[in-house]
Amino acid sequence: MQHDTHHGRHDRHDHHADHADHSDHASHADHTGHSAHSVGKVGWAMAARATLHCLTGCAIGEILGMVIGTALGWGNMATMVLAIVLAFFFGYTLTLRSILKAGVDFGTALRVAFAADTLSIAVMELIDNGVIALWPGAMDATLADTLFWGALAISLAVAFVATTPVNKWMIGRGKGHAVVHQYHH
């Protein structure tokens, strides 16, 4: 690969005002994971990674909420509300944890987590819970039923597929996980 002299020195990953155009980072072998520093073209792989991050927090909260509500014999609505609240909680918590590791103060980290994840989690929860609500018998399945676990797994997979384009769109506009990305350096 041929590198121009403007980006010849990339042993460190510094962001300087005079180097604001980072559009050719994808050509650097050691920066392939950082191909979308600025607003513009975003790859599906980056969007999928952001969605997988979101899905992890949502799945933890969703499964925990469904298990708790079902085990306690709660009604469908109360169980679903608990699952959604826990999905947002764990989704934000995972992002918050990674931002705090970068040395950012709690208030800033919380604002970044809200900005990065709210739309993604909301779309994921809408799709996930919509699939479960529309799946015949899924809302009444118990923890011992294959239908409970099967519907939950499929609903999370459908939510992942539906949310990935949303994250791609947000990252391409410098929103969502693009905001978090700047703290990972």
Task: Give a quick set of tags describing it.
single chain; 185 residues; mainly alpha; 5 helices; 0% strand; globular; disordered N terminus
SSE topology string: HHHHH
Beta-strand proportion: under 5%
Mean pLDDT: 79
User: What portion of residues is helical?
Assistant: 55-70%
Structural class, from secondary structure content? mainly alpha
Summarize the main sheet: none
Please count the helical segments.
5
Radius of gyration: 19 Å
Oligomeric state of the chains in view: single chain
| Shape summary | globular
End-to-end distance: 24 Å
**Number of E strands:** 0
Uncertain segments are 1-38
Overview of this protein structure:
The chain has 185 residues and is mostly helical. Helices cover 62% and strands 0% of the residues. The protein is built from 5 helices and no strands. Helix 1 packs across helix 2 and helix 2 runs antiparallel to helix 3. The N terminus is likely disordered.
